[in-house]
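Design request, C-alpha cells follow.
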C-alpha cells in the first residue's frame, strides 16, 4: 500500500512540472479568459484557463504511477471526474448554458451511483426505525445527487480570486487524508494525499505566480473530487449519528459562500447563475481587506472549521452534533450580516452614479 505522504510529494512535483506545458497548451487551444468578456472579468490581460488541463493530466499520471492502489471506487470517481473535466473544458472553450452543465454533472453523478458510490446513512437510519428500505434508498440517491452537484458548483462559484479554490481544496484534502487514515481507509488516504499535492501545485501556479486560472474544468473537477471523498469516507468505528457532519464541515466555506450568493441574488432579483462580484471575498474587499488578506482570511476560516470537524472525532455524538449546530448558527448569523454588506458591483455602481 502506498504511503500517502510519498504520494503527496509525487503529485505536488507533477503539478509543478506540468504548469508551463498546461499553460502553453491552453494558449495554443485559445483557451483564454479575456478581460471584459463578462462584467466580473476585470483581470489585467488574457489569461490561460489551464488549471483543468494540469489537474486532469496529473491525475492520469498518478493513476498510472499508483495503479496498484486503484480499487473500484477510485476508478469510478476518476471516471466521473473525467466527465466533469470534459464538460468543464467545453464550457471554458465555448461558454455553456446551465442545462448542458447540469447534464454533465448528472452524468458524472450517475456513474458513481450506478457503481454503488453513494450516501448510505438514510438506510442505517431507516433500518433502525423499521422503515421502508426503498424509500431510504430513494433518499440516499437524492442526497448523493444534491451533494455531488452542490459541491461541484460551490467550488466553481467561489473561484472568484486567484488561489481561493486551490487553497480550499488543499485544506479539505489534508483533513480528508487524516480522517481516512484514522478510519482505516489507506487507499482513500493515499488519494486524498494525491489531491492535496495537486491542489498545492495549483495554488503555486494560480495563487502565487498567477500564471493561469483554474477555469470551470479545474474548479468543478476539484469540487467533484472533494465531494466524492466525502461520500467514500466511512468511519466504521465511529457513530453514524455524528460522523456524517465531518465532510460538510470540511467543505463549509464553499457551502457558506454559495448560500450567501444564492440568497443575495434572490433578494435582489438577479439570476443565480450570473457572473457577479458578490462573493464572500468581494464583500471582504469592500470592507477594507486587501485582496490577498481576503483570500488568506477565507483559507484561515476553512482551516478553523476543519479543525473543529477533526475535534468531533473524539467527542460523544451529542456533543459533536452540538458543535456542528453551533457552527451552523454562527455561520447563519454571519451570513445574514454579510449579505447586507455592499458588493464590489454595488460599490462600482455607486461610484459611477457619483
Amino acid at each position: 500500500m502506498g504511503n500517502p505522504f510519498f504520494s503527496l510529494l509525487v503529485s505536488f512535483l507533477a503539478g509543478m512540472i506540468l504548469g508551463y506545458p498546461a499553460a502553453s497548451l491552453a494558449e495554443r487551444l485559445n483557451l483564454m479568459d479575456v478581460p471584459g468578456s463578462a462584467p466580473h472579468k476585470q483581470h489585467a490581460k488574457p489569461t490561460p484557463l489551464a488549471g483543468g488541463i494540469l489537474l486532469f493530466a496529473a491525475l492520469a499520471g498518478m493513476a498510472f504511477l499508483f495503479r496498484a492502489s486503484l480499487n473500484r471506487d477510485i476508478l469510478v470517481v476518476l471516471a466521473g471526474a473525467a466527465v466533469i473535466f470534459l464538460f468543464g473544458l467545453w464550457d471554458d472553450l465555448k461558454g455553456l448554458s446551465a442545462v448542458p452543465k447540469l447534464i454533465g454533472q448528472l452524468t458524472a453523478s450517475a456513474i458513481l451511483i450506478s457503481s454503488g458510490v453513494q450516501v448510505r446513512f438514510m438506510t442505517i437510519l431507516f433500518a433502525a426505525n423499521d422503515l421502508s428500505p426503498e424509500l431510504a434508498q430513494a433518499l440516499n440517491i437524492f442526497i448523493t445527487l444534491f451533494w455531488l452537484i452542490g459541491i461541484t458548483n460551490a467550488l466553481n462559484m467561489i473561484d472568484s480570486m486567484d488561489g481561493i479554490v486551490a487553497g480550499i481544496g488543499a485544506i479539505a484534502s489534508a483533513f480528508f487524508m487524516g480522517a481516512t487514515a484514522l478510519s482505516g481507509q489507506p487507499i482513500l488516504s493515499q488519494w486524498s494525499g494525491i489531491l492535496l499535492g495537486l491542489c498545492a501545485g495549483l495554488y503555486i501556479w494560480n495563487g502565487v505566480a498567477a500564471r493561469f486560472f483554474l477555469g470551470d474544468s479545474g474548479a468543478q473537477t476539484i469540487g467533484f473530487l472533494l465531494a466524492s471523498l466525502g461520500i467514500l469516507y466511512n468511519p466504521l468505528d465511529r457513530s453514524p449519528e455524528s460522523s456524517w457532519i465531518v465532510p460538510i464541515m470540511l467543505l463549509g466555506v464553499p457551502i457558506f459562500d454559495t448560500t450567501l450568493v444564492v440568497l443575495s441574488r434572490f433578494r435582489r432579483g438577479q439570476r443565480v447563475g450570473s457572473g457577479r462580484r458578490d462573493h464572500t471575498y468581494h464583500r471582504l474587499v469592500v470592507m477594507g481587506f486587501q485582496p490577498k488578506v481576503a483570500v488568506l482570511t477565507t483559507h484561515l476560516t476553512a482551516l478553523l472549521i476543519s479543525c473543529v470537524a477533526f475535534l468531533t472525532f473524539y467527542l460523544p455524538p451529542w456533543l459533536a452534533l452540538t458543535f456542528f449546530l453551533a457552527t451552523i448558527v454562527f455561520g447563519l448569523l454571519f451570513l445574514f450580516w454579510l449579505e447586507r454588506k455592499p458588493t464590489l458591483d454595488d460599490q462600482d455602481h455607486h461610484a459611477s452614479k457619483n
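Comment from the thread starter after seeing the answer: thanks! Residues 133-157 form the longest helix (25 residues).
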